[in-house]
């Protein structure tokens, strides 16, 4: 078993996912098992299957070896799936070597069949990993804005609701900002929609570059962006938004685009509202400031 663990560690090195925010419930952790959990379960399965192979002799259990291989390919990586194909192959050979009482165990045809089974497992591992990758790509396309790559409105509300729930439990402040573009329609009218699209991409890039990895950012409308900042009070949110506003102005000045930005921001220290109400408050601040032709940040703490 230690041999299996060391091989798994070698295969998984360099493919470890970035650490994510720890889940707060046992149910969510079961839905997202860690690579170590998958490896331990798979090793136990291989030991059991090897023992069954030993006592059953010539009967093929290849269909059951698909379980650890598929688990590794789906939950860890394609390389891990290939590794468990190899471990399954070794397990089969070890069981055959130990089962000397079976006359057919050492025939060339038998080992050819074992090799064919190994190739079959490799192919299935590749297919499972490819399916997982395509499903992930489809999910990303469904949740992101096709132009900017930021979250779309639906995906933002879904992710933000989880963040607010976590913040309520940990009693941490949350800040949200609505970024409105001023004079964007004139860009489309004067320079065309292609230039307008380029401008929106510049804005999205500036938002990504200025905000933190834990923040959620989305494009809501044609010229409206939203940023949710978990675990962020006014002392942290306001300097970040001032930096963002400055970066946006610099990006527009660099391209000679006559566009300004109005940011409506709200920090909630306690009694976090529902995400819809939270967004509405930030949008109202930005809309009021925009109607007054104010290019800057309107900020409140509730």
UniProtKB/TrEMBL annotation:
InterPro entries: Diguanylate_Cyclase, GGDEF_dom, Nucleotide_cyclase, Rev_trsase/Diguanyl_cyclase. Signal peptide: none annotated. Gene3D superfamilies: 3.30.70.270. GO terms for cellular component: plasma membrane. Residues 172-302 form the GGDEF domain. It catalyses: 2 GTP = 3',3'-c-di-GMP + 2 diphosphate. Keywords: Membrane, Transmembrane, Transmembrane helix. GO terms for biological process: cell adhesion involved in single-species biofilm formation; negative regulation of bacterial-type flagellum-dependent cell motility. It is an enzyme of class 2 (transferase). The chain crosses the membrane at residues 37-55, 62-90, 110-131. One of its GO terms (molecular function) is diguanylate cyclase activity. This is diguanylate cyclase.
